[in-house]
């Protein structure tokens, strides 16, 4: 096959590869996306859902930057829920169940509308180099393809090995071949390669589940969705369900422990601590009589269900027997058993914050190849890698988001500064500035930045400007408009809060914890005549205005703290400096600084084992 010269080649069409190729092509690069199967773009190989705690914030950030994951999720969702509503707005996290087949089809449709983007179905079995630069890839069928940059998003396919009980076989996912050659080639060039493990539950025939014995979990009445672009919410939703294991289920599972590849040592990779297999859970939490399971539909029309919380690599006979001991599953049949998969990854301390590798110029890594897990974590890395691969070949400075700008910035900084020793998943607790990184304001944080570099569309930017204007107008109106006792005391007493004795500003009254702006608008003519709550866009503006008023003091404090700490990120460290010459540093600091080569004093301060005293020594050395 004779290929044309490309600017960027993206290897793999998972969530990272799809976002990377779309971003680079929309910015103007000539891009080739190579994948083993064009029918499985952004395949939901595990849970058929997007978003969740902290992950939902990431999807909204990807959308605010001009990515596609939020749009695709909104078009293919079958249920929507805003998690953590009982907590403060910093913790609110959107999540949706998706129709997994529609999700892949919609992603392909989105990509086929992108100019400058070509596709090739093949296996990449090697990279091409020109000295310390990457210059293309070699494919199994097509041969050499040349490019100025390459983005690897291989997921779990690099030397993937699937385990079910004592049986194991090569595979990147069930029914799909593993990829060989790239790990070995990069190891020879000095890259460190390690193994990780993840797993997935069995898939169940919904026609054989007794849903009357399960607890129904319907979607929210209010469907916000992920994308900030105006869209029609879904008119109907499918329910999820809750089930529970029992001591009998645990006893059956324990019978298979002697065959478990996890307990016998056949699996060498480290698995995710926060999302353990069912056998790991009943071993680690042996004091628990039961564990909660979520029964989740995989589409609008198919009868396949995902049993969230029941991932396993035990023999299929044990899995099946244990399943039938769960209430509601006494007559259940399965489409396929659960399995574990271990695969190669490259410790991400070998990357710059742009996601370009330190050892090979023009080579970028994104997604599970960096030790992360989850569609959302992969998607945001792919987006950033695609942006920065384009900016590299255009000789522009990379886009690097700070920890106070986005969860994406937190994720990438954690990977590069701290590395991973287990699959990395984003949590709200990983962010120092959660009140700044809310799901409602991702467009305020990121859309103008995306528009200025050419990724966010004019439509998206104009809508952001409209929202910004309306929110500011609402805040101004609430903080300057007063109401009399006669106008509001009836409403205040109905909400269980004390009446006012004299005129007071609406913004001041809204600070009471018993009140929310939506109800105030419905109850007070002075507001209901001004704001139309039947419009989704207006409702989003109302929500953000209320948060900015109620949490103004906390937000200001976090901004001040972020500004102080971010100053360290403006202090550049010399490249290729030998830190062993600074004997005032601790030995551990010298070792880690030489290994990780942080680019700024702020990055150095976040490396595990680097003490404040070490940072002071570096600051003195730099003349600060």
Could you write a compact summary of the structure shown?
By secondary structure, this protein is α+β, with helices and mostly antiparallel strands. Strands 1, 2, 6, 7, 8, 9 and 20 form a 7-stranded mixed sheet that branches. Strands 14-15-16-17-13-18 form a 6-stranded antiparallel sheet, with no helix packed on it.
Strand content: 15-25%
Task: Give me the CATH architecture of the domain at 203-338, please.
Answer: Beta Barrel
- Runs in which pLDDT lies below 50 for 5 or more consecutive residues are none
CATH topology call of the domain at 203-338: Elongation Factor Tu (Ef-tu), domain 3
What do the pLDDT scores average to? 93
> Major beta sheet, specifics?
7 strands, mixed
CATH C-level name of the domain at 203-338: Mainly Beta
> Which descriptor suits the 3D outline?
globular
Round the Cα radius of gyration to an integer and report it: 26 Å
Oligomer: single chain
Compute the number of helices.
22
Number of strand elements: 22
**Helical content, roughly?**
25-40%
- What is the CA–CA distance across the termini? 57 Å
| Structural class by SSE content | alpha+beta
Explained architecture:
- By secondary structure, the protein is of the alpha+beta class.
- Among the domains are: 136 residues, Elongation Factor Tu (Ef-tu), domain 3; 106 residues, Orthogonal Bundle (Arc Repressor Mutant, subunit A), CATH 1.10.10; 51 residues, GidA associated domain, C-terminal subdomain (DNA polymerase, domain 1), CATH 1.10.150.
- 36% of the residues lie in helices and 18% in strands.
- It is built from 22 helices and 22 strands.
- The strands form five sheets. Strands 1, 2, 6, 7, 8, 9 and 20 form a seven-stranded mixed β-sheet that branches. The chain has a six-stranded antiparallel β-sheet with strand order 14-15-16-17-13-18, with no helix packed on it.
- A hairpin with a 2-residue loop joins strand 7 and strand 8.
- Helix 1 runs parallel beside helix 10.
- It starts with 5 loop residues before the first strand and ends with a helix.
């Amino acid at each position: 096959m004779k290929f044309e010269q490309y600017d960027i080649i993206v290897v793999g069409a998972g969530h990272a590869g799809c976002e990377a190729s779309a971003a680079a092509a929309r910015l103007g690069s000539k891009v080739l996306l190579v994948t083993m199967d064009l029918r499985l773009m952004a395949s939901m190989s595990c849970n058929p859902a997007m978003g969740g705690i902290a992950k939902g914030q990431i999807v909204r950030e990807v959308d605010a930057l001009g990515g596609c994951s939020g749009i695709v999720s909104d078009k293919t969702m079958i249920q929507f829920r805003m998690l953590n509503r009982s907590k403060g707005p910093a913790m609110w996290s959107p999540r949706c169940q998706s129709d997994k087949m529609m999700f892949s089809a919609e992603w392909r449709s989105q990509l086929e509308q992108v100019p400058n983007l070509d596709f090739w179905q093949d296996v990449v079995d090697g990279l091409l180099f020109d000295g310390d630069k990457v210059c293309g890839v070699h494919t199994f069928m097509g041969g050499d393809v040349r490019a100025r940059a390459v983005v690897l998003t291989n997921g779990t396919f690099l030397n993937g090995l699937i385990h079910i009980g004592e049986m194991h076989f090569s595979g990147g996912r069930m029914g799909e071949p593993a990829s060989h050659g790239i790990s070995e080639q990069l190891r020879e060039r000095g890259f460190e390669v390690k193994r990780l493990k993840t797993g997935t539950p069995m898939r169940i025939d919904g026609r054989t589940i007794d849903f009357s014995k399960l607890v129904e979990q319907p979607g929210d009445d209010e469907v916000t969705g992920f994308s900030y672009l105006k869209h029609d919410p879904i008119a109907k939703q499918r329910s999820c369900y809750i089930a529970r294991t029992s001591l009998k289920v645990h006893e059956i599972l324990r019978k298979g422990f002697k065959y478990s590849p996890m307990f016998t040592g056949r699996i060498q990779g480290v698995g995710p601590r926060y999302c353990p297999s069912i056998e790991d859970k009943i071993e680690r939490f042996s004091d628990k009589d039961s564990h909660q399971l979520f029964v989740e539909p995989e589409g609008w029309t198919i009868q396949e269900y995902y049993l969230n919380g029941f991932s396993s690599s035990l023999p299929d006979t044990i899995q099946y027997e244990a399943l039938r001991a769960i209430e509601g599953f006494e007559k259940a049949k399965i489409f396929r058993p659960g399995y574990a998969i271990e695969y190669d990854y490259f410790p991400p301390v070998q990357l710059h914050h742009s996601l370009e590798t330190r050892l090979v110029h023009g080579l970028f890594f994104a997604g599970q190849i960096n030790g992360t897990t989850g569609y959302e974590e992969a998607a945001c890395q792919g987006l950033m890698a695609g942006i920065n691969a384009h900016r590299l070949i255009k000789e522009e400075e990379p886009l690097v988001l700070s920890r106070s700008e986005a969860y994406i910035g937190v994720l990438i900084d954690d990977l590069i500064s701290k590395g991973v020793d287990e699959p990395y998943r984003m949590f709200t607790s990983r962010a120092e500035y959660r009140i700044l990184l809310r799901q409602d304001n991702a467009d305020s944080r990121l859309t103008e930045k995306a528009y200025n570099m050419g990724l966010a569309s004019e439509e998206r930017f104009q809508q952001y400007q409209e929202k910004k204007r309306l929110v500011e107008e609402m805040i101004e109106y609430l903080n300057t408009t007063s109401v009399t006792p006669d106008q509001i005391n009836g409403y205040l007493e109905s909400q269980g809060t004390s009446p006012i004795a004299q005129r007071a500003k609406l913004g001041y009254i809204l600070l009471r914890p018993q009140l929310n702006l939506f109800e105030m608008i419905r109850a007070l003519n002075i507001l209901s005549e001004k704001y139309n709550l039947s419009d989704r866009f207006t409702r989003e503006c109302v929500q953000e205005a209320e948060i900015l008023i109620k949490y103004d003091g906390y937000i200001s404090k976090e901004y001040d703290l972020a500004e102080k700490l971010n100053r360290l990120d403006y202090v550049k460290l010399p490249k290729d400096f030998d830190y062993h010459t600074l004997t005032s540093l601790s030995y551990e600091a010298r070792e880690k600084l030489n290994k990780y080569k942080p680019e700024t004093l702020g990055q150095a301060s976040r490396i595990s084992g680097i003490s404040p005293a070490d940072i002071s020594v570096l600051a003195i050395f730099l003349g600060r």
